[in-house]
Amino acid sequence: VQLQASGGGLVQAGGSLRLSCAASVRTFSNYNMGWFRQAPGKEREFVARIGWRASNTYYADSVKGRFTISRDNAKKTVYLQMNSLKPEDTAVYYCAADEYYRGNYDLVDEYDYWGQGTQVTVSS
Q1: What is the H or E stretch that residue 85 is in?
Q2: Euclidean distance between CA atoms 13 and 32, whole angstroms
Q3: Burial class, 65, CB count within 10 angstroms (exposed 0-12 / middle 13-18 / buried 19+)
């Protein structure tokens, strides 16, 4: 499984960005997908997760109401729409694929495959 994240960039506070993560995999719908982020000097943290049927979504409290995760199984792509961005959202954003759910959707160790990350910088 290979994951390619894109869509990061520099944006002013209050602006929006949409991240994409394209998967090279035979059956994309077999995977639950997540987004994490890592700011300099900090641990990687959970942002959002979407189930394989897209009916279940989960968000970190810090992004709830501002970010929306979605997926297109036909395109083998997961998205993260980020609105009302804040300087504290600045981080490298990673997409991840979870093949076998172990019960901890917000933990790094839950996920089996990771993309390379895309930088998001929010200026004040």
Answers
A1: none
A2: 30
A3: exposed
- Judge whether 35 and 109 are in contact, CB under 8 Å: no
- If you search the block for the tokens 């694929």, which residue do you land on? 97
**68/50 Cα distance (integer angstroms):** 10
| The Cα angle at residue 5 between residues 51 and 112, in degrees rounded to 5 | 50
What are the 10-residue block averages of pLDDT along the chain, 124 residues in total?
Answer: 97 98 95 97 97 90 98 97 98 96 93 97 96
- Residue in this structure with the two tokens 């991840």, named with its chain if needed: 96
Assess contact for 1 and 104: CB atoms under 8 A: no
What does the pLDDT read at residue 53?
Answer: 83
Residues sharing a CB contact under 8 Å with residue 83, sequence separation 6 or more, in sequence order: 16, 66, 67, 68
Asked if 19 and 11 touch (Cβ cutoff 8 Å), the reply is no
Report how far residue 73's alpha carbon sits from residue 79's, in angstroms, rounded to the nearest whole number. Answer: 11
Helix (H) or strand (E) holding 72: strand 67-72
